[in-house]
Amino acid sequence: MKCRADLRVCLNCQSYDPRVAEQCRERRADLVLEKHLGNFCEYFEFIRRPWEPREIKLTREEAARAHLKKLLGD
User: Fold this and answer.
1) Per the structure, how many domains does the chain have?
2) pLDDT per position as a tens digit, 3-44
3) Structural domain of residue 17, as residue ranges?
């Protein structure tokens, strides 16, 4: 996600399923062609996903030091 991105999109809905026809399990919903853009579907409900923190990117020097420590068993 990025700042100012729409949250109410098909990809965040619990009915979204790429394996079914029109990629939506809710049969009464209108067809939405662009699943990544905001829409006003009346059957939208946020999907519940476990929160996973992103890895913090190390600088090149920090990555080298961590690799060295791993090699030496420190």
Assistant:
1) 1
2) 888 999 999 999 999 999 899 999 999 999 999 999 999 999
3) 1-74
